[in-house]
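Hi L.,

You mentioned the student needs an example of a multi-chain input paired with its predicted structure. This one should do, with 728 residues in total across all chains.
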Amino acid sequence: MDVIPLHLGVSHFHTPAVAVMAMQEAVGRHNTYYGPNEGLPELRYALAQRYLEDENAPVPAEQILITHGAKHAIHLYLQSLLHPGDEVVALAPYWFAFPELIRQSGGKLVTVPANPEEGYAINLEDLRQKITPDTKLLILTNPGNPTGKVYSLAELQQVAHLLEEFPNLHLLSDEIYDGLAYQGRVNSFLHFEHLRDRVAVVNGFSKSFAMSGWRIGYLIAPFDILHKATELQLKLISGVSPFLQAGAAAATQHRHQIWQHFRTDLDTRRQLVIQELEQMPKLKFTVPDAGYYFTLQVDDCLQPKDPASPFQLVEEWAAALKDQVGLEVLCGTKMGMPTAVRMSFALPEEVLESALLRLKAFAS
Amino acid sequence: MDVIPLHLGVSHFHTPAVAVMAMQEAVGRHNTYYGPNEGLPELRYALAQRYLEDENAPVPAEQILITHGAKHAIHLYLQSLLHPGDEVVALAPYWFAFPELIRQSGGKLVTVPANPEEGYAINLEDLRQKITPDTKLLILTNPGNPTGKVYSLAELQQVAHLLEEFPNLHLLSDEIYDGLAYQGRVNSFLHFEHLRDRVAVVNGFSKSFAMSGWRIGYLIAPFDILHKATELQLKLISGVSPFLQAGAAAATQHRHQIWQHFRTDLDTRRQLVIQELEQMPKLKFTVPDAGYYFTLQVDDCLQPKDPASPFQLVEEWAAALKDQVGLEVLCGTKMGMPTAVRMSFALPEEVLESALLRLKAFAS
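Structure written out for the whole complex:
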């Protein structure tokens, strides 16, 4: 049986044509030599302009480091910030790559659960209790991956107050799905200017711009940390392809049209998934505010909740889903949600419809 | 005064048109999504085919990891091989990035001088004496950077014998300038099949293919080390842009025409530099076998050899060269040659002619 890949972090959209054209134009101008390690000025200025226009947040272009994707930006940031033994607090569920990225930089991940029953809201009291003298960093993923949760300005304000309470605590805000929010707006943590000496933002073009294969991300960080990250990029790898960055700059300039198109298309799919999932009572879900994942709680399909189930672990359930109906999903075990799976809905319409029929056949 | 950049490691050639066309064709097929972490099969197979055809060295495509440039390949290799305190032996002069790459992986660089008076030949006895129980790795750069030295098969054979003497010693052969050898042939260390469990080769497209801004390199290494490097790339950065790799694959297939063209062009320039340098008796040089650098020994222009000279350090000489006649060169201090500089001759003809006139005015 063919397997429909619902586990991937990639959408069905093509790279925006404006990005391809600008890239080709740069190649035509022979901008194929080494670019500046810190990034192409036209991309750094386009991004600075973006935060000024959309967030009213002044960010100097010099504070933006262009990296080989957002994962690389996070790695450079953690390498520049953490010392062995430092604790890093993150809400669970979290992006599956974080534990290893933190471990590689000598840090120790401490998680605070956010529950689907409460819409993955931040439990500030729980968070506060996990902060110790060894806590160096708090990681926020906004919009959430896998949850699709977008934090309100009021919620972010509470986190900002927490940072004020703990003057040595840094914050990393991973905002890579920010163009795909169905209400059209994600508040960047850059909003809190008075905390800018302890706040970093990571972002990139893979998700909101459907440019996953372009490998372009960026880091906005306090200057001392940014300088270390920039040095590290120079020493260990060098900067990003300048002609690809020209494409990313054009995409940034056309972001509103691109995002409008992506969101409208994705929202139709999101509504279809909601409509179908409502007919599968054993799968609990929350409606994502952004991005293209649903997080499905499958504990009603597992022992002990369902004594008749052949499955104890979510991995067994997911393996049967793949074997029996050809659907591959991502198990939540590595994302801090041990009885849930992540499924993407960024698929061509007929493929998504087929996937939902298969899911219903399996889980009803 | 305008400054002519003789310090850069980049040639005046445009990226080969076949690479650009293949890349654009891949973008047209929307190959703009995440590619495989280990590399695009068509590039890995093209490279395997290349070593089979050119070196008669069978390398499975599965043993080739595509990385974000050769520097990144070296970093992944060293991270996968070295433990803190391991010693790494290299001939001096060496590529300026090696000391920091080794340091970042916890290793300690130990150098063995190779002298211009002896054509930068390997002094095997000196090399043998530097090998201790802590020596994990020997680094060979062939063709040499900055020296342009190409080792004969007989010389490489001697190094192979040394490896047989020390059964725990690994070897990394950096062969990134291998397409630019004026005799048309560089022997890869992959030739020695019986040592393949301890030999790694790093290479890339920046130099021999004039694709510096594409950021594509590769690592061929023993499987256990390669697997660690591949895991590390996945965890910390993810794989290289697939559509760029399509361009690199096409360049590999057309390598003989590309290299023929580059070498013919560069050789004309090399002859011009030789002719001019012969009229500057205070600058000693060797004729490079490959690549586009001359290494100039400037000790005759410094104190104490020239008591009338205002300069003690090569940095002072190079600063005056830039200030007085607008030539920027790379000081050898960070390359293990404290009284020499590296100058590139991969420049448009009229620029190179102007540079040589300026050099003669300064150094005569």
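You could point out the following to them. Residues 17-253 of chain A form a domain with the Aspartate Aminotransferase; domain 2 fold (CATH 3.40.640.10). The interface with chain B takes residues 8, 10, 14-15, 20, 23-24, 27, 30-35, 68-69, 71-72, 75, 97, 100-101, 104, 206, 210-215, 235-238, 240-244 of chain A (CB under 8 Å).

Best wishes,
N.
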